[in-house]
């Protein structure tokens, strides 16, 4: 009897495992910050999210100005130390040498990028409107001066503000980015002396 023909079986295809995407971390590319400067902003570019530190890569044309301690700005403001940084500016503690024994100020130095400079101009106009005819609110940070400064990375808009306390980002970090507890939010939003930070950051 003839032998039955064997059917040629194709070898089973091996299942390829899809590469798993790495888990997303908290260091997203966006963050929102208010660094004692009177400005609330959303980050962009190479700066890491949830950070109040400036990225060294942003010290370039259109970026940050390289501020150094003890430098004098606008023939008036002597830099003492760094307060913080945001997506669009760095903020510095300065002594006003035109006012003997006067209060210290927070000097905000914006990036020289055109869009940032335009945003800074809008910010100045808003503060001037709010402070027109000597009007000011105890719940809004006060701008005391503004000027232009030209450096190696371009022309930067600078603003000076009264010095405030710690920013809300520090509180967010304290709770490990899991949200500020509701009772504390309620406490902060009441006008009990701590309202300044919350109102200024909104």
Write the layout of secondary structure elements.
Elements: E1 32-33, E2 41-42, E3 72-73, E4 77-85, E5 89-96, E6 105-110, H1 114-130, E7 143-151, E8 154-162, H2 168-174, H3 182-189, H4 195-201
Antiparallel strand pairs: 1-2, 3-4, 4-5, 5-6, 6-8, 7-8
Can you describe what's shown?
Its EC number is 2.7.11.1. The structure is a single chain. This protein is α+β, with helices and mostly antiparallel strands and 202 residues long. The chain is 19% helix and 23% strand. Strands 3-4-5-6-8-7 form a 6-stranded antiparallel beta sheet, covered by helices on one side. A hairpin with a 2-residue loop joins strand 7 (143-151) and strand 8 (154-162).
Descriptors:
alpha+beta, 202 residues, two-stranded antiparallel sheet, disordered C terminus, 4 helices, 19% helix, six-stranded antiparallel beta sheet
Précis, in short:
This protein has four helices and eight strands, in the order E-E-E-E-E-E-H-E-E-H-H-H. It has about 200 residues and is α+β, with helices and mostly antiparallel strands. The longest helix is centred in the middle third of the chain and has 17 residues, at about 115-130.
